[in-house]
Amino acid sequence: MADNNEPATMDMDDADNFRWQTIAGKRKAQTPPRETTAKKQTTITDYLPPAQPVITENRYSSLTEEVNENNSGNNDNDDDETSNVDNPRQEPTTRPPPIVVYDVTSISDLTTYLNDHAPNGYTMKTLSRNQIKIQTKTAVAYREVLAKLKEKNIQLHSYQCKDEKPFRVVLRNMHFTMDVKEIKDALLEKGHVVRDIRNIKHGRTKAPLPMFFINLAPASNNKDIYAIDSILHMKYFGKTRRLPPVPTLTP
């Protein structure tokens, strides 16, 4: 039997095929001898007491102090609520819309004109194409400045104040031959002031439809119109109509 370290023998017919390689016999893996056996760690049962006692602290003890503070704070809130009842919160005023003036050639003349009608009540900003944006601080100053600029036929544009924006309603199931003046008078008797009313026509055929557009003057009872179930003995269905803000233009 050949030794494992010596190359294996082969036939003469296969010698030509293995001239470039030496084939050695397989070696058996040898397991190293175990010199020592594994031992279990001994369990310690006797512990020495610490030199000084360990001081522990309850980290949730501060919650009782916070509860007491909250209880005292609730009493303060009750006092604040009582004061709020005596002094009701004032609703914030709406900001007036801007006024854009076109083709301004002299800013000093415009500033002088604004100072005469709204001193310290406006701010200005320069836009492109010689446009000036005027932002008034109050609605009163806005109305006064806008009226004075329109009197001078100054080219500008602006938008309607939110306080003056009408409450738009669509009256349905109303015959198109009904007199709009009679509808105005009927709504006025129920406490609603009508600014404008017109019949709705079909977009393609232009035929009159049994619906009317109504613009009510802004008031605290505008939504009460939904409680009305009939006008001039006609049952109707009211619905709010949402439209974009109405611009104010001057030629």
Automatic annotation (TrEMBL):
| Pfam families in the record | PRE_C2HC
Q: What is this protein called?
A: Pre-C2HC domain-containing protein
Q: Where is this region: Disordered?
A: 1-54, 66-98
* Location of the Pre-C2HC domain: 180-246
